[in-house]
Amino acid sequence: MYATITTELSEGIFTITINRPDKLNALNKEVITELGAALDEVYSNAAIKSVLLTGAGEKAFVAGADISEFSSLDAQGGAGLARRGQQLVFDKIENCPKPVVAAVNGFALGGGCELAMSCHFRTANEAAKFGQPEVNLGLIPGYGGTQRLTQLIGKGKAMELMMTGDMIGAEEAKGLGLVNHVFPAGELLAATRKILGKIGAKAPVAISQVIACVNDAARCEEAGFEHEIKRFGECFETQDMLEGTAAFLEKRKPAFIGK
Ligand code: COA
Fold it and tell me: Is 134 a catalytic residue?
């Protein structure tokens, strides 16, 4: 159905694999278009409970935007490329009401690091490498990297990584809070699915409210506390809240329905 990505739905987890391993899964126009379409599926298909995003092959998650598409662009073209990607993919991932986790299986550079950072959190294998090397090309990150890297690891370290273009390994990325868990390569997908399975057993509306509230905080949204109060209140209108509290009092496991 797609040419540059593959998708698979199993036990509510929708795995999206960027599939251009010969180009280290670089994000060209077609990948952005297809990722956008796959994310529309995520929003509209009730059978999809969460998303795992990864890259095909042994070497890379995504080694960046496709540099071969850059040379013909002027200021307007460059801004258009960044805007299109942010709107079609990166913002859609960040604001997705269902959990989206990046399983980083190798290089996550430039747009690849930005793609991982747009996800709600990240796991990685031991070989993963992260970096924003755009300055080596006379560029800056354009898929949200200046904002999200600063949110995730703080101003000083973000400045250094974006000014030097240096790559860091998985353990260092974990120390900085860029990655939550580092797993051996062969275990990355199964271990990440296990985390998504755990989240999948919780009340879906509450999970989507957590995503919205934490996104407010990351954006320094002034009304973040007020939004939390409102969203906390909204949870009381769900059947799952009645089920969750009743199950606790009756000492049984809750059976959530997502309403
Ligand atoms: N855009 C387009 N093509 C890319 C690419 C990108 N961002 N990253 C890798 N590729 C292509 C290479 O051109 C090469 O294609 P070819 O076999 O047709 O020549 C193929 O993927 C394999 O990459 P190669 O450079 O040979 O692998 P390597 O193991 O020697 O190096 C990297 C790996 C990741 C260090 C190197 O590919 C690299 O620096 N990539 C660019 C990273 C970058 O600057 N990203 C930010 C873009 S804004």
Answer: yes
Report the residue among 22, 24, 139 best suited for mutation to probe ligand 1: largest number of ligand atoms under 8 A from its CB.
Answer: 24
d(CA 96, CA 209): 11
Q: What is the pTM of this model?
A: 0.98
- For 21, 239, 243, the CA distances from 227, given in Å and listed in that order, are 42, 21, 24
Nearest partner of 122 among 99, 141, 89, judged by Cα: 99
The per-residue pLDDT string of the chain (259 residues; one tens digit each, 9 = 90 and over) reads 899 999 999 999 999 999 999 999 999 999 999 999 999 999 999 999 999 999 999 999 999 999 999 999 999 999 999 999 999 999 999 999 999 999 999 999 999 999 999 999 999 999 999 999 999 999 999 999 999 999 999 999 999 999 999 999 999 999 999 999 999 999 999 999 999 999 999 999 999 999 999 999 999 999 999 999 999 999 999 999 999 999 999 999 999 999 9
Does 170 share its domain with 215?
no
Q: Is residue 255 part of a domain?
A: no
Residue 234 is among the residues annotated as catalytic for this protein: no
Whether 208 and 96 share a structural domain: no
Ligand 1 pocket mutation, candidates 18, 23, 29, 115, criterion most atoms within 8 A of CB: 23
Domain match, 210 and 112 both: no
